[in-house]
Amino acid sequence: MVNRKELDPEKSPVARFGQRLRQLRDERGWTQDELAARMGCSGTHISAVETGRRPPTPRFAASADKAFGTGDRLERQGRAVWNTAILEGFPEFVAHEVRAAEIRLFELGIIPGLLQTPEYAAAITTGAVRRGAITEQQAEERLSLLARRQASLQRTPPPLMYVVLDESCIRRPVGGPGVMAEQLDRLVALAELPSTVVQVAPFDLGERRAFDLPVTLLTLTDRSQIAYTESAQQGCLERDMRFVQPLVTAYHQMQAEALSQAASVAVIEKVRKGTP
């Protein structure tokens, strides 16, 4: 079939659900539009769920069970999706991130995932497990996805990556002195790469800091741009340039206000020397 996207059920619970949905549909010889007609939705919606771009809601899973005559099997499988630690909207964002030509990051309070050492990432997820925010299985899911995202940076050519870290990111201790020291060393090493620019937005930037929430901006290979932001419960992927362009402009303004890369590395090394 032309342009039929290969599915990887090991990628995430969302991907496993999508693969199962497609398998059941193929077994019956239905098109996406035919299944959609039976479920009362659109073929585009079916496509988005099958390819993992949209997670299935409980209502969607129950409707699919009814269409396929599968009892409550899809509804039960969907619970793994609803209990995931990966925010809605994030899998779709990652699908773009791993192919982006340029990645622009702004983060507060924590080193961005793409820049984290394994030990730093493990400390973050362990803390979330101890607080009861996620389960151990969900922590493993997060770390597995992070490892795949980081591995994607090794593609040729690598994406250009611009990183602005609020000073809180390098000042907040995570995982103990040893873990934090290695993490700061990694930031310095990344700043030496020709494809990466690392800057620190100091505390005294005050009201001149453009963002109060983490923001990621992607430039795709066709030079289109998308933005990703998230709340505690949901991620938001924005493609409409009426909303993306102001974020891009604000990001450039913040880069101009932040410390230069050389000055940023000096600050990071100073904090590093204060770590036993």
UniProtKB/TrEMBL annotation:
CDD domains: HTH_XRE (cd00093). Pfam families: DUF5753 (PF19054), HTH_31 (PF13560). This is Helix-turn-helix transcriptional regulator. InterPro entries: Cro/C1-type_HTH (IPR001387), DUF5753 (IPR043917), Lambda_DNA-bd_dom_sf (IPR010982). The lineage of its organism: Bacteria, Bacillati, Actinomycetota, Actinomycetes, Kitasatosporales. It comes from Streptomyces pulveraceus. Residues 21-74 form the HTH cro/C1-type domain.
